[in-house]
Write a structure and sequence with these properties.
The protein is α/β, with parallel strands linked by helices. It contains 10 helices and 29 strands. It folds into 2 domains: 276 residues, Spore Coat Polysaccharide Biosynthesis Protein SpsA, Chain A, CATH 3.90.550; 108 residues, 3 Solenoid (UDP N-Acetylglucosamine Acyltransferase, domain 1). Strands 1, 4, 5, 6, 8, 9, 10, 11 and 12 form a 9-stranded mixed β-sheet that branches. Strands 17, 18, 20, 21, 23, 25, 27, 28 and 29 form a 9-stranded mixed β-sheet that branches. It has a 5-stranded parallel β-sheet with strand order 14-19-22-24-26, with no helix packed on it.
Length: 420
Amino acid sequence: MREVRSNRPLARDAMAYVLAGGRGSRLMELTDRRAKPAVYFGGKSRIIDFALSNAINSGIRRIGVATQYKAHSLIRHMQRAWNFMRPERNESFDILPASQRVSESQWYEGTADAVYQNIDIIEAHAPRYMVILAGDHIYKMDYELMLQQHVNSGADVTVGCLVVPREEASGFGVMHVDDKDTITAFVEKPKDPPGIPGNESMALASMGIYVFETKFLFEQLRRDAEDPSSKRDFGGDIIPYIVKHGKAVAHRFTDSCIRAAEEIEEYWRDVGTLDAYFDANLDLTDTVPKLNLYDREWPIWTDAVVAAPAKFVHDEEGRRGHAIASLVSGDCIVSGADVRRSLLFTGVKMGSFSSANEAVILPYCNVGRGARLNRVIVDSGVRIPEGMVIGEDPELDARRFRITERGIILVTRDMMAKLV
């Protein structure tokens, strides 16, 4: 095992490459207008802000983001929120849409191809290490610690892994490892996931985070591009090949996760379904939330929207503007309305006598007087008419809106337009 001896952080010699091209179809109509990484989260952020903030907070100053599906909202957000990188400080932030750079007909064919098609751009920055990231998960992690393990272990690739119960691992790529966490097999969504040596009830599931030396990664991408049977995917092609022909090592999230003092667990969420998205947002309303967004030592960077402060007005019985166990963003007006265990994103307006209970209301929605919302996700820009009730009559809600198996209701502008 090679020990890192330089005092220079490895992150200074690394580039983070974020794969942000996926739709996230399990989020249904919430991703009709935007890619999954561009979906709003936590009151004011976007999902991609977590991976990007982890990179910045880890000391990485060269970042590339590959986009593809309906990327306008995502690109606009990154231009507004992430334009502070300065070339004169050896910093860079490249937005890399699929742009038929290799041929006139070829878009990004897979996660590995999304890096392969931009090798020339990466080479111009000359990073020694590449940190490949998924742009659609909620977590806080110090990639510097993963880079250190990668160098010290002599691995060809280091794979970020979650320790999960075996019965929950079937939806992931799962690592079979030896007692030193060297990966001996990579199994995609197995029916019977392999356990961890010494703890067979748990399994190591891939986080979609990979660390390579850049030269080695380029060699693998070029080799893979010449294989006509490849699907050009890291999890399906690149990693299994290295496991078989090289040295792949697992890095456990527990070794590099960031937790504020009051956070009692390692928090990682794939908010890929409406139910998971709803739960992760509502987690933030707990008195002691599982994920602390108030941690000033590891901030989640996002667009600093110029907005007036939130406002609460009226103080009479039945018409009192207040919010309990809720996150209320700037430019919101709670006018004689009752908000409980909910998130109001920027610019939400709630009229008198309206109420929101366990509601995730995205930016610039308008909730009319007397409307009642229960266990809902309201997409951005929706206008809820006066007196409308959502979340109390499942049969009526199912005819008008999207409703999940757990009874969470999604309301979009197109759904509301059909009711007129």
